[in-house]
Design brief:
Strand content: 25-35%
CATH class: Mainly Beta
GO molecular function: DNA-binding transcription factor activity
InterPro entries: cNMP-bd_dom (IPR000595), cNMP-bd_dom_sf (IPR018490), Env_Response_Regulators (IPR050397), RmlC-like_jellyroll (IPR014710)
Number of domains: 1
Helix content: 25-40%
Pfam family, one: cNMP_binding
Number of strands: 10
Distance between the termini: 63 Å
GO cellular component, one term: cytosol
Number of helices: 3
Protein name: Cyclic nucleotide-binding domain (cNMP-BD) protein
Order of helices and strands: EEHEEEEEEEEHH
Length: about 150
């Protein structure tokens, strides 16, 4: 049972189908992984390292929104049907990613609902984290120190 794992709820599920789709990719520090707006058909989990996610603004140019680390997900939009990247991703340290072809992973999720649930749960957690980070960025953007006026 080396390819079986207990999930957080204590259920046993096989990770072998995921392992068969996975490949490892290593990027040096400051390497671009993908650019905002590009069509990109891969989804990644960060195994080691850090990745800065940036979004373009009309006035301020690219602004760092979040630094993702081990266990975080990148490229989730490729799995949800829109393969256009919503941010630019740059490795800030040497970074190792577990990479999946989004179409193959989606097919696996549809065939194996246990794995599909785990993958979609991970995506939901990642989106929640990004939403909180975006809110914090907006608060910082619109914050005015006391005693100043617009």
């Amino acid at each position: 049972m080396s390819h079986d794992q207990l999930d957080k709820e204590g259920s046993l599920f096989s990770v072998e189908p995921l392992a068969e789709l996975a490949s490892l990719q290593t990027y040096p520090a400051q390497q671009l992984l993908f650019r905002e707006g590009e069509v990109h058909a891969r989804i990644y989990w960060i195994k080691e390292g850090r990745v800065r996610l940036e979004m373009s603004g009309t006035r301020a140019g690219a602004k760092a929104m979040l630094t993702a680390g081990p266990g975080d997900l990148l490229g989730w939009s490729a799995l949800l049907g829109d393969q256009r990247m919503t941010a630019t991703a740059v490795a800030t340290l040497e970074t190792t990613l577990i990479s999946f072809d989004a179409v193959a992973l989606l097919q696996l999720c549809e065939q194996n609902h246990d794995i599909g649930y785990k993958v979609m749960h991970t995506i939901a957690r990642s989106l929640s984290k990004r939403l909180v980070a975006t809110r914090l960025q907006l608060l910082d953007l619109f914050h005015q120190p006391q005693g100043t006026t617009a």
